[in-house]
Amino acid sequence: MSLLTPQRPASGAHTDSAATMVPNQSRAERTTSYTVADFPLPTGREEEWRFTPVDRLGALFRDEATGACLEWDATLPDGVTLRTASVEEWRASGAPAPGDRAAAVAAAHSGGVAVLDVRAEAELDAPVRVRLTGTRREVVHGHLLVRVGRFARATVVLEHHGVSEYGEVLSVVAGDGAHVTVVTVQEWDDDTHHLAQHDVVVGRDATVRHIAVTIGGGIVRMNTNASYTGPGGTFEGLGVYFADAGQHLEHRLFVDHSAPHCRSNVEYKGALQGDTAHTVWVGDVLIRASAEGTDTYELNRNLVLTEGARADSVPNLEIETGEIEGAGHASATGRFDDEQLFYLMARGIPEDEARRLVVHGFFASVVGRIGVPEVEHRLMAAIERELSGGAA
C-alpha cells in the first residue's frame, strides 16, 4: 500500500477534519461528571456513540454495582506501592471526571480505587506489571489511579486477558518533570466487551507516553484523554490494533491543550481482515486560547486486508489561537498493495511470507517505539497468528 507522508502545516495554520468538519459542539463543552444520571443512556445517535454498537452494551450502562472483580497479578519494583483508596481521594488527586455514562458507572460502582504510587525521583529498573484476567462473563467495574512523583521515571504495563463485561477508569497523574510510559494491552477473548476511559494528566515539563495495543475482544472502545497542568509538557499517544471477523475496535483520543508551550504527537495504526471487522479511530485536539506555543500532530493509518472489513477514521482540530508552533493531522485507509506483493514474490518470496513482510513493515514505526521488548514480541506474534488464520 502506498501512503503519502503528509506535510506539517506552517506555524499558526488551521486544519479542519479530513473526514468531517469540527463538530458543532466544542470538545470543551461536552459533559464531564461524577454523577451517572448526568449521562442519558446512549442511543447511538449521539456524536460520541455513533460508531459504537450500543445495543450490545446495555449491561455496562446499568447504574448498579455487581461486586465482581477481575483477578489481579501485580509485579512492583522498588519504589512502587499499591493500595486501595476511596473514590473521594481519587477525586482530590487531580484526575478528570468521567466523560461518558460507562465511565461514570465504572467510577461509581468500583467499590474503591486501586492506587499505584511511584515515589518522587524514583528511577525504576524494571516495568511495573499488572495483569488483569476475567474468568466469567460478568460485569466488572475497574478503577485504577497511577500517580508518578516529581522527576520519577517509570514504565507501567497493564494487560487484559480472559472474558468479561469490563467498564474501566484509568487515571495517570504525572508529577512535574516525570517521564512515564503506560502500555495497555487488550488481549481479551472474542466474546469480551471492554469500555474504558483513560485520563493522562501531564505535569510541568513532564513527558507521558500512552501506548494502546488492542488485538482481542468482541467490542473494545477506549477513550484516551490528555491534559496539562503546566507549560513544557509532552504527551505521546501511540496505538496498534488488529481487527478480525466480527470484532469492533474503537479508539478515541482527546488532547486538551490549555497550557502554553506543550507538545503532543499521536500515531495509531490498524489492520483489518475478515467479514464485519470494524475499527474506529477518532482523534480530537483542542488548542485553547491560553495554549500559545503549542506543537501538535496526529496521524491514523489503516490497512484493509480483505473484503468486508471497514475502517472509520476521523481526525479533528479545534484551534482558538494562532500563536502556535504547528498543528496538523492526517488519516489514510487503503487496501493491501498488490504491487508490493508482486514485487516481493517476483524475487522468490512465497506469497504468505510476502504478505507478512508488508504488514510487519506497516506496523514497524509504532511497534518499535513501544519500548518493552516483551510486549513488542508478543504483539508481532499475535499479528502472525491473525494473518495465519485470516482469509487470503
Automatic annotation (TrEMBL):
Transmembrane segments: none annotated. Residues 136-362 form the SUF system FeS cluster assembly SufBD core domain. Belongs to the iron-sulfur cluster assembly SufBD family. Residues 1-30 are annotated as: Disordered. It comes from Fodinibacter luteus. InterPro entries: Fe-S_cluster_assembly_SufBD, SUF_FeS_clus_asmbl_SufBD_core, SUF_FeS_clus_asmbl_SufBD_sf, SUF_FeS_clus_asmbl_SufD. This is Fe-S cluster assembly protein SufD. Pfam families: SUFBD_core.
